[in-house]
Amino acid sequence: MHVSKINYIDFFESAFDSRSEAQQFIEAVEKIPTDKCKAGIVLHQTARMVWLGDRINEVAMKRPALQVLFHLIAAEAVAKIVKGFKGEGQSRQYVRLFFEDICSDEHRDIFGKTFSRLHAGYLSVRDTVDILYDIRCDVVHEGMYFGFSLPEKGESYPELTMSRNEPLTAYITIEKLRQIVIEGAVLGAKKLASGYI
After folding, report:
1. Where are the domains of the chain?
2. 121: phi > 0 → left, psi -120 to 50 → alpha, else beta; which?
3. Which tens digits make up the pLDDT trace of 71-104?
């Protein structure tokens, strides 16, 4: 399958209560001209980046840092589109904004229990976002994609991992992070489309 052939209803179905609800929303958003509302771009960019992240296991199994990269690219794009950002840079700020403002309270509750320092308790939502952003930067700027790990679906929790030479305990799977990004993107698209559908 080619990235241009993503079925958006199939892709985003898990972010809705039913397939018909997903279909109604996606079809309504697709009818809005992008010069009036960028909700369709939010959905398309998220699906493309997450879809690419999903394919990483085919060529680099058990390297979640590469998937984190694509998930955070999607999160940044959504935040910048939702907030109407026209400049360059400020990536960390917009990734924070995605998880702290666009995502739901439920997502923030999960992020508040995603990582812990050894014998020091859970990290804050901001610290969790910053760790994931640092992982993204390690991949992009240093080519470091092999020192970070997350528990895999079906494995026992938690998993010991490293971020910037600091040992952490991870309590989230890449699949859960993926789902939060997808659901957050839908929330962002709904904000943008609220006056149009």
Report:
1. 3-193
2. left
3. 999 999 999 999 999 999 999 999 999 999 999 9
